[in-house]
Design goal:
The chain is α+β, with helices and mostly antiparallel strands. Helix content is 27%, strand content 25%. It is built from 3 helices and 5 strands. It has a 5-stranded mixed sheet with strand order 1-2-3-5-4, covered by helices on one side. Strand 1, helix 2 and strand 2 form a beta-alpha-beta unit. The longest helix is centred in the first third of the chain and has 17 residues. The protein is globular, with a radius of gyration of 14 Å.
């Protein structure tokens, strides 16, 4: 929870006025054995993207524990412009930007996925979510 709060505080200044930035309080208190600096970097990348593409509504960071698979599942959910399902893998390629007008080099999602995989997990787009975008980061609990 402390790391999530720190990441949210670090992105708050990037959020458009009127957009609610929140932490899902249903997220349980847990200990996760991973590289906190890299986890912070991944979550910051995901939240920064959400802030870029959300002009109204909300951005929510949360996590849950998948006890059966011994994983922690983080989600960054926004009510922004969304991403078409057919672009769900292309967005993770280097230098790919769906909106050429926005800032950035198109490397944030690529780096986030690489870091997640180095940590034994993965990042993907939840293509079933249609009210914006939802990114899912799964990491092993140990």
């Amino acid at each position: 929870r402390a790391l999530c709060t720190m990441v949210l505080d670090g992105v708050r200044h990037r959020v458009s006025p009127g957009v609610e930035l929140r932490f899902d309080t249903a997220s349980p208190q847990i200990s996760l054995f991973t590289d906190p600096q890299r986890l912070h970097q991944i979550l910051l990348n995901l939240l920064t993207n959400a802030a870029k593409f959300t002009s109204k509504g909300s951005i929510t960071l949360g996590y849950s524990v998948d006890a059966a698979d011994e994983k922690v599942i983080f989600t960054v959910t926004d009510t922004g412009i969304g991403i078409k399902p057919d672009k769900s893998e292309a967005i993770f390629e280097r230098f790919v930007k769906l909106d050429k007008e926005t800032q950035g080099a198109g490397l944030g999602l690529t780096i986030s996925r690489l870091l997640a995989r180095i940590l034994g997990g993965d990042v993907c787009l939840d293509t079933n979510y249609t009210k914006g975008a939802r990114f899912v980061l799964s990491l092993p609990k140990k």
